[in-house]
Prior knowledge:
The protein is an alpha/beta fold. The protein has helices at residues 13-18, 38-46, 61-68, 89-96, 107-118, 133-137, 190-196, 210-215, 250-259, 263-275, 280-286, 289-293; strands spanning 25-28, 52-59, 72-80, 101-104, 123-126, 142-146, 153-158, 164-168, 171-172, 178-179, 200-204, 206-207, 220-222, 227-232. 44% of the residues are buried.
Amino acid sequence: MRSELMKSKLTTLSDAVARIPAGASIALGGSLLRRQPMALVHELIRQQKRDLTLLTWATTLATDMLAANGAIRRWEGIYAGFFRHGLAPNFRRAVQSGQIETHDYSESAFVARFRAAAMGLPYLPSKALLGTGMQGKSPEEITPITCPFTGQPLLALKAADTDFTLLHGYVADEYGNVQWPVVRDSDDIDQMMASASKRLIVTVEKIIPHQQVQERPALTYIPHTLVEALIEVPYAAHPTATDGFYNEDEAALKGWLTASATAEGAAAWLREFVHGCPARQDYVEKVGSLAALSALDVAREFTV
């Protein structure tokens, strides 16, 4: 693609997140302890975004931190916890206190909602939640219908039509052509979320030359036409992993969970590591510098 027909999407974390108003609905990418868009989440917290509706796949730290900051009004997704580390303590407290309204989905049902949005459809039919308690809990998004061809009972699952989508990717050129590695842990729906997005904000580990994108076009899973804002942020998923680049930081994750034994402890952690670090580089220095983070690196199967 001719670069003169494209424009740079590069910006800063503060500028990108400033576009998101209070009360927005946001799809957050990543899965479990991989590629949670933490640099963007920290900026949401610093800018005190409130009353948010989050749609997530299998979410961990991103949702728990936003819950600790009182940012979430409604959550829709398949899982919120810390995988092998247990539950998400701040999210759990907020749900139990009634601060966060939750709407659970099976994986196949949630995929159907994002697939509908990606296809530009208002809904997709599904059998996934028939006979479950999930069906009755979310009548605004799940409606019984009858198949016009067979008479079968089905459910219409409303498209996941969010205001913004926040993802952490691997590499991109300045125009927003985001490339995925050939080999990765592909248990997420980030690419579908991108296709479904109205306004897509992406952080990547590295900006690469456009020529490099042209040399391997098959790796461009998110084209520039979908991306509104792009920010180069090395280790932007920390302390979660970016598969193929670096592992999760077990010590940092345990530090958050230890602090989160109480709401006051979580708030103190946020004051020190988020509010007290106005730039991402400040956070990097706080957790030990780039040299310390590089100890998490893995042998890359995706050369950049």
